[in-house]
Write a structure and sequence with these properties.
about 350 residues; alpha/beta; six-stranded parallel sheet; 13 helices; binds nicotinamide-adenine-dinucleotide
Length: about 350
Amino acid sequence: MDIMQRMSAEGHEQVTMFSDPGSGLKAIIAIHDTTLGPACGGTRMWPYESEDEALTDALRLSQAMTYKSAAAGLHLGGGKGVIIGDPHSDKSEALMRAYGRFVDTLGGRYLTTTDVGTTGRDLEYVRQETRHVTGLPLSLGGSGDTSIMTGLGLYMGMKACAEEVWGNGGLRGRTVAVQGFGKVASHLCEHLLEDDVRLVVTDVYDAALDRARDMGLEVASPDSIMDVDCDIFAPCALGGVLNPQTIPQLRCRVVAGGANNQLLSEADGEELHRRGILYAPDYIVNSGGIINVEAELGDAGYSPERAREKTERIHEIMASVIRTSQAQEISTAAAADILAEERLASVRAVRPVHSRCR
Ligand code: NAD
C-alpha cells in the first residue's frame, strides 16, 4: 500500500519527512487529526530497521493520540514524531535542534513532547528552535515528568475496573501482576501499596528488579509473569502483548496497564471480552501523561491541581466505557472507540457560521 492509501485508510491529515544530513537527522511527523486542536504527541527515537517500519509506527501512534485526547476530553488532536536512530549513540544537540527547526515549520499544527528514547533534556534543545513543544522540565517552567500522572490515572482506571468486578471492596487485598517496572509502573505501585494490594512484578532490567525488591515486592521472571495467578494483569512495558499466543495464558479477571497499543489487533480486544476478562483500554487509562502536558499549555501556566483533577476523572471515564460495553454488548475496546469517535463527530458537526464581513 502506498503512503497516500495508508493515510486515507486511517484518516491521517499529513505526513512530513525531514532530512538534515549535517546533523544526521531523519525524521517523520504524522498528524492524524486536528479536529479538537493542534496535534500533540511525543517524539520517539528508535533504531528502526527500515523507513517503512518508522512510518508505520508514526501512523499508528498518531492515530492512538487522537483517540486518547478525544476520550479524555482534551482540546488536542493526534500526532507523533519519530526520529530514526539509536538514542544512545546517535543523539546530539545538533540533531535535536535540527528536529526543533522542522517542528517549527509546521507552524503549531504539531506540538511535540517526550516519548521512548527522548528526554526532558532533548526538549530543552528543541525549545531553542521552536515554541511548539510541551512537557518541558520543571526547571524550565514546564510540567515535568509525565509518568507521575500516568501512574495516578492508571490507578484510577484500575479502581473503576475492580469496583465493577469485585464491588465496593475494589482493589483492597487483590493481587496485581505488573509487566515492566519502569516509571509508570513504579508510580502505579505506590498507589496500590496504599490499598494493601499484593504486587508481583517483573522486568528485563536487573536494576529495576533490585528497586522492586528494595520496595519489598515479589519478583517473577519476565517469561512467567503472564502465568502468575492474579486478579489484575498490568502490562506496563511494551505494545502488542495481548495477542493470540498470550491471551490463553492469562489467569486474571482484569487487564489494566500503562503500555500503549497493548492489543496486537482489534480481534484481541474481542477475544478478551469473549473470555470474560475485563480489559481497560490502554488509551483510556494511560492518558494521565497527555492530561499533564495539556495543563502546561495556555496562558494560565501549569497547574498540578488542574492536571490531577482531570486525571482523577479517568475513574468516571473508565466506568462509562464499561457501561457502554454492557449496554451494547460489545467489548470495552470497541466501547472506548465509540466514546472517542462520538466526541470527534460532534465537534466536526459544529455548524460553520460567518463571524465577519469580507
Ligand atoms: P520505562 O522505560 O520507564 O519502563 C518500561 C520498563 O519496561 C523498563 O524498565 C523496561 O526494562 C521494561 N521492559 C521492557 N521490555 C520488557 C519485557 N519484555 N518484560 C518486562 N519488562 C520489560 O517506560 P514508562 O515511561 O514507564 O512507560 C511504560 C509504558 O507506558 C510504555 O509502553 C509507554 O509508551 C507507556 N506510556 C507511558 C507514559 C508516560 O507518561 N511515561 C504515558 C502513556 C503511556
